[in-house]
Design a protein that fits this description.
With about 575 residues, the chain is of the alpha/beta class. The protein is built from 23 helices and 22 strands. The protein folds into 3 domains: about 170 residues, 3-Layer(aba) Sandwich (Rossmann fold); about 160 residues, TPP-binding domain (Rossmann fold); about 180 residues, Thiamin diphosphate (ThDP)-binding fold, Pyr/PP domains (Rossmann fold, 3-Layer(aba) Sandwich), CATH 3.40.50. The N terminus is likely disordered.
C-alpha cells in the first residue's frame, strides 16, 4: 500500500456532529437532568422561548397570579422537601417582583434556583422595554447570580447553580438569560462535573474541636442546647435527639428550628427569643454552657447582647463560618454540617457533668411559667384557635404562616414534634408569605394536611393566589386570624407609642367568605370556640381547599415579650 492508502477496514467513518439545540431547550433539558419536580412561574415577553420549550415537556408548572406568589411557593416547597425550588419570571417587573422572595430565602437559608428573562444582549444597558439591572439588584440578596452571555456556557451555569443552592448553607441562586441567548443554538453538554475551587464548604468538622465540645459538656453544670434551622436543613433531628438523651441537656429551639427537636420531649424548654417561653429564655441567660447548633444568633433571639448568655462558655456549630462570632463571642467554634457534627460528638465517650440541680430547676421553670392566655368565655381567643388546629390535625399538619401576632401564637401553641412541618418567614418577616408558601408546601407533600394560618393584613397582600388552590385542586386550609388590625403593629403602638394607633387598624375588611366563594371554594366564618370546633372538624375532613374567617379580639396581645433593648431575662407578661 505504498500510495499511502488505508485498508478498507481502517477507514474512519465520519463522526456525527453533536446536535445543537436552543438555549431555552437547554434549560428544560437541564431541569430534567436535575430531576426537577415542579416549576413555579409567570410568563412574559422575555421568557416566551423558555415557556415555548416548556410546552409539552412533561415538567409540571404552577402558574401563580404574581411573581412574588411564585417565589414564596418555591420557598414553601424547598422548606418541606429540602430540594431547590425552581422559579421562572420575565424581565423587568417580573424580575423585580421576585426581590422580596430572594431576600427572604437568603436570610432563611432556603435553596432556590431562579431564572429571569432579560432583554436581548445587544440592547442591555440601553433602558430597553422591560429592562432592569437584575444582577446589581439581586447580588446582595442571592448566594450567587449569573448573567448568561454565551449559550454554550448555559448548561455549566445551571449545573453550578443547583450545586451552590443546595450545598453548604443553602440559599437562592439567580440566572439571568437574555432573550437572544434563549433562542441561539448551541451544544448541550451536562456531563462535566462541577468545579468551583473558590467554593468548598466544610461539611465534616474538625475532630479536635469536637473533642473540646465533649470536654466542655463534661465540665458543665448548667448546659443548654440551642437548636436552629440548621438542624432541620441537615436532616439531623434523629442525631440531635440521640445526643440530647445521652447527655441529658435541655433544648431551646429558635423560631425556624421548631420541629428539629420534639416539642413533647421532657427536655424541650420551648422557643427562645422575643416571644419565647420563660424557661427557654432564662435557661439561655443562666447557663454556663450554650451549645448552638445551626442558629445564627439573630437579634430577635438574643435581645440585648450585653445580657445574652453572659455566664456561658459558647459553642457554635455552623456550616457557615461567617456566622460564627458575628454576633456572640464564641469560645469553641465548630465549622461543619449539623448532622456530621452531631455524629462526631456521638462517637466521643461523652460524659455528663453534675447537672441534676440544673435539670430540676429548668423543669420547675417550665411547669411554673407556661404560655398562657385568659379564656374569658367571650368569643374566640386566637391562642385557643391554634390549640384547636393542633388538636384536630393531631399535631401532624404542615403549618405555614404570614408574619405578626398569629405567627407567634402558632409558634407557641402548635407543638411541632417532627421536622419540615413549620414553614414561616423568619429573618425578613415577610407579610403575604403564608398562602403562597402553603401552595408550595402542599405540592411538595401531597399526602399531608397543610394549614395556612394567616393574618387579615398579610393575607390581603397575596390573596390572589387562592386561584391556584382551585386551579390545581390543592386542599390547603386557609385560616384567617382576623382581628381587623395589623396586630403586631397595633400591639407595639399600644405598648410603646401611648396607644396612638397610626394606620394599624383595618375596619373596612372585605367579606372573606364571599371572596372564597368568588374563587370557587368553600368559605366559613366563626366567632366562638364552639363554632371553630365544628367548622375545623368539617373543613379538615374535606379533600378540597377551604377558607375560614376566624373573628378574634382586636386587643389580644402576644406574651411573653422582651421589649426592644432589653435582655432576654427581662420578659413582661410571663403570668396573667
Amino acid at each position: 500500500m505504498g500510495l499511502g492508502l488505508q485498508k478498507p477496514e481502517e477507514v474512519s467513518a465520519p463522526q456525527p456532529q453533536p446536535q445543537k439545540i436552543s438555549g431555552s431547550q437547554m434549560l428544560i433539558e437541564a431541569l430534567r437532568q436535575e430531576r426537577v419536580e415542579v416549576i413555579f412561574g409567570y410568563p412574559g415577553g422575555a421568557v416566551l422561548p423558555e415557556y415555548d420549550a416548556l410546552y409539552g415537556a412533561g415538567i409540571p408548572h404552577i402558574l401563580t397570579r404574581h411573581e412574588q406568589g411564585a417565589i414564596h411557593a418555591a420557598e414553601g416547597y424547598a422548606r418541606v422537601t429540602g430540594k431547590p425550588g425552581v422559579v421562572i419570571a420575565t424581565s423587568g417587573p417580573g424580575a423585580t417582583n421576585l426581590v422580596t422572595g430572594l431576600a427572604d430565602a437568603m436570610m432563611d437559608s432556603l435553596p432556590l434556583v431562579v431564572f429571569t428573562g432579560q432583554v436581548g444582549s445587544n440592547v442591555i444597558g440601553s433602558d430597553a422595554f422591560q429592562e432592569a439591572p437584575v444582577l446589581g439588584i439581586t447580588m446582595p440578596i442571592t448566594k450567587h447570580n449569573y448573567q448568561v452571555r454565551d449559550v454554550d456556557s448555559l448548561p455549566r451555569i445551571i449545573k453550578e447553580a443547583f450545586h451552590i443552592a443546595a450545598t453548604g448553607r443553602p440559599g437562592p441562586v439567580l440566572i439571568d438569560i437574555p432573550k437572544d441567548i434563549a433562542t441561539t443554538l448551541g451544544v448541550f453538554d451536562y456531563s462535566e462535573p462541577v468545579h468551583l475551587p473558590g467554593y468548598q464548604p466544610t461539611v465534616v468538622p474538625n475532630r479536635l474541636q469536637i473533642r473540646k465540645v465533649a470536654a466542655a459538656i463534661a465540665q458543665a453544670k448548667k448546659p443548654v442546647v440551642l437548636a436552629g434551622a440548621g438542624v432541620v436543613f441537615a436532616g439531623a433531628a434523629k442525631e440531635l435527639l440521640e445526643f440530647v438523651e445521652r447527655v441529658q441537656i435541655p433544648v431551646v429551639n429558635t423560631l425556624l428550628g421548631l420541629g428539629g427537636f420534639p416539642a413533647s420531649h421532657p427536655l424541650f424548654l420551648g422557643m427562645g427569643g422575643m416571644h419565647g417561653s420563660y424557661a427557654a429564655n432564662m435557661a439561655m441567660y443562666e447557663c454556663d454552657l450554650l451549645i448552638n447548633i445551626g442558629a445564627r444568633f439573630d437579634d430577635r433571639l438574643t435581645g440585648n447582647l450585653k445580657h445574652f448568655a453572659r455566664f456561658a462558655k459558647v459553642v457554635h456549630i455552623d456550616i457557615d463560618p461567617a456566622e460564627i462570632g458575628k454576633n456572640v463571642p464564641t469560645d469553641i467554634p465548630v465549622v461543619g454540617d449539623a448532622r456530621e457534627a452531631l455524629r462526631a460528638l456521638l462517637e466521643e465517650p461523652l460524659e455528663r457533668g453534675d447537672t441534676a440541680e440544673w435539670l430540676a430547676h429548668v423543669k420547675r421553670m417550665k411547669q411554673e411559667y407556661p404560655f398562657w392566655y385568659q379564656a374569658d368565655g367571650q368569643g374566640l381567643k386566637p391562642q385557643r384557635l391554634v390549640e384547636l388546629i393542633y388538636q384536630f390535625t393531631g399535631g401532624d399538619a404542615i403549618i405555614t404562616t404570614d408574619v405578626g401576632q398569629h405567627q407567634m401564637w402558632a409558634a407557641q401553641y402548635y407543638r411541632f414534634d417532627k421536622p419540615n412541618r413549620w414553614v414561616t418567614s423568619g429573618g425578613l418577616g415577610t407579610m403575604g408569605f403564608g398562602l403562597p408558601a402553603a401552595i408550595g408546601a402542599q405540592i411538595g407533600a401531597r399526602d399531608k394536611t397543610v394549614v395556612a394560618i394567616v393574618g387579615d393584613g398579610g393575607f390581603q397582600m397575596t390573596l390572589q393566589e387562592l386561584a391556584v388552590l382551585t386551579d390545581y385542586k390543592l386542599p390547603v386550609k386557609v385560616v384567617i386570624v382576623n382581628n381587623s388590625a395589623l396586630g403586631m403593629v397595633r400591639q407595639w403602638q399600644q405598648l410603646f407609642y401611648e396607644e396612638r394607633y397610626s394606620e394599624s387598624l383595618l375596619p373596612g375588611q372585605p367579606d372573606f367568605v364571599k371572596l372564597a366563594e368568588a374563587y370557587h371554594m368553600k368559605g366559613y366564618r366563626v366567632h366562638t370556640e364552639a363554632e371553630a370546633q365544628a367548622v375545623l372538624r368539617e373543613a379538615l375532613a374535606l379533600p378540597e381547599p377551604v377558607l375560614i374567617d376566624c373573628r378574634v379580639p382586636a386587643e389580644e396581645n402576644v406574651y411573653p415579650m422582651v421589649a426592644p433593648g432589653k435582655g432576654i431575662h427581662e420578659m413582661v407578661g410571663i403570668r396573667p
